Sequence to fold (496 residues):
Amino acid sequence: MPQFESPYFAAIDLGSNSFHMLIVRFTDARIEIIDREKEMVQIARGLKHTGNLDTPTQERALACLNRFSERLRDIPSAQIRAVGTKTLRTARNSRSFLKTAEAALGVPIQIISGYEEARLVYHGLSHTVINDYDQRLVIDIGGGSTEFIIGKAYDTFCMESLSLGCVTYTENFRLSADALNAEAIEKAYTNACGELEQIRKTYLERGWKVAYGTSGTMRAIAELLGKEDGGAVISRGALDAFIAKIVDDGKIASSGIEKRRRDVLPAGLIILQAIFDQLQLEKIHVADATLKEGLIYDNIGRFSNHDSRLLTVNQLQANYRIDSQQAEAVSNTALHLWRQLKEIPGVGLSGVSRTKILDWASRLHEIGLNISHSNHHMHGYYILRHSDLAGFGRYEQYIMANLVRFQRKKIVPSRFDDMDKEALESFLPLLFCLRMACLLHRRRESGHILPHIQVNAQHYTLTLDAKWLENHPLTSTSLETETSYLKKIGITLSVH
Fold:
């Protein structure tokens, strides 16, 4: 059983519709929910035609995060995970907003891909639903996107995230709970069906025995249909009948639902109807577990051998036939150097474990070798930057991809223009360790190389065994060339 600094864990989901916070206590290999908070911030409404989050939306979001931060103060930061989803993935000013948001919340915020969002949703459900024997479809309707996952027990077979969101559809098709327009509803429904065409054939061929719906939109719809379906299941007949009624009435007559949820319900209903029709569903079971629970279980796994990122790295090594012996040798040397530089501050890489990211970049530094020998570092960058990697946030992938990209050959300083000063200061020592390790293991020898490194400001002094240097004249020459490369990024190198 892994040891934790505290039995408490927290998950924060900065969704396009609502911000959620979940706090649990982990004891006896199970979680006990201690506290929940939810606010319908609806940041997707703040994305104007410019693609930027507007000022009122940012202020609303920051006020919410300030309130959340009070509850997180006594929980170790390593046991808190905060993620942003669809709207924060697409907002043009997301990066600047995140800096302020992290200051308000008090912990790093990771932007995750739609694939990772889907994985975490399923991860949460798989730990809370008893039936592990049937293949199941899981659907999570959010404010900016909807995730679709087919899996069985803890394994997933299909994962997709489509641009079907109840907030964005409300804005794009001008849907109103108090003035429903049949033409607008038809346009929204047709558009949703078109989005679903991307997955319809594949998902129907894979099949499932039972379908689950997660998210607040699903629960709100289930409550509306409670008289017909009991509140725990949504059936096709009840859904179609309810939508027909509200179209006739021209509004949703329900005083029991808070205004912001009610405002986006027409879009949620239309999206769900399209899902029923395109995926040929008869009923959906409503589940309580969502992305938040997935974050909790995923974070607990990071304290043991069940870190999903490590499993991803191992899978990538197998899929791209990476020489594991060479990868381990490079990793050992890179980490040996890094441990000697550990006093270098790393505040610029928010939420990134520099030791882990250096290890994984080292183990994956030849991921592009089967594509091209001369430019394998460039292909490696593209693979790691743009692939859906389970467990990784987008910023983690960005850092790892850039380490692989600049592991060898010339360094182009202009390529780092999108890193701020603090991030670059934290990144460059990692890059130095990886470049040295790759260079020293160029002969692909199996023996250990344990160089000594000292740093004074930006001057690095590398000390190697004199006999080893004498027996490796090509490496010695390469180290001389390396000094000119490192000067481009402000690092001077002496080799003894």
In short: The chain has three domains: 8-112+293-298, 129-288, 307-448. The first strand starts at residue 8 and ends at 14. The longest helix spans residues 182-206. The chain has a mean pLDDT of 90.
